[in-house]
Amino acid sequence: MMDLSTRLEPVLAGLGYELVLLERAGRGLLRIFVDKPGGVTIDDCVAVSNHLTHLFTVENIDYERLEVSSPGLDRPLVKPQDYARFAGETVTLKLRVPIENRRKLAGQLIGLADGAVKLIVDGREMSVDLMNVDVVRLKPAI
């Protein structure tokens, strides 16, 4: 899977997109989430899907179905650079092990430093070990 991500990142960058997440699901489903400045439209998803379908055929990449999608307003933060890019935004963290009897935290993202997610929760700065974080997502403004 890592090899496929590494192969796709420059291809997608050449098309003007960022690879956010790559998932393999049951029955040969390959799900790819892409983003670009200004957001992703259905036409973007179709264009990326068509391009990747041809690429996968040429490179003999095994899959049954391909889904290309936007990461959505609640975009997951996956790469270290995501934490710098979205510093100052409101995020939600789902934890593997509770902290102060809480498995979910919401606050303003400061960034990622020394293997920990730094954020402000309820007016105080917190540091959460990245190994304890299941998922970090942007919290859409309502």
Characteristics of this structure?
single chain; alpha+beta; SH3 type barrels; five-stranded antiparallel sheet; three-stranded mixed sheet; 3 helices; 26% helix
Binned, the helix content reads 25-40%
CATH homologous superfamily classification of the largest domain: RimP-like superfamily, N-terminal
- Quickly count the helices: 3
CATH topology heading of the largest domain: GMP Synthetase, Chain A, domain 3
CATH class identity of the largest domain = Alpha Beta
Mean pLDDT: 94
Q: How big is the Rg?
A: 17 Å
Count of separate structural domains: 2
| Structural category | alpha+beta
Unreliable sequence segments = none
**Describe the biggest sheet?**
5 strands, antiparallel
**Net shape:** elongated
CATH architecture of the largest domain: 2-Layer Sandwich
Helix-strand string:
HEEHEHEEEEE
Secondary structure layout:
Elements: H1 2-15, E1 18-25, E2 29-35, H2 42-58, E3 65-69, H3 80-85, E4 90-99, E5 102-113, E6 116-121, E7 124-129, E8 133-138
Parallel strand pairs: 2-3
Antiparallel strand pairs: 1-2, 4-5, 4-8, 5-6, 6-7
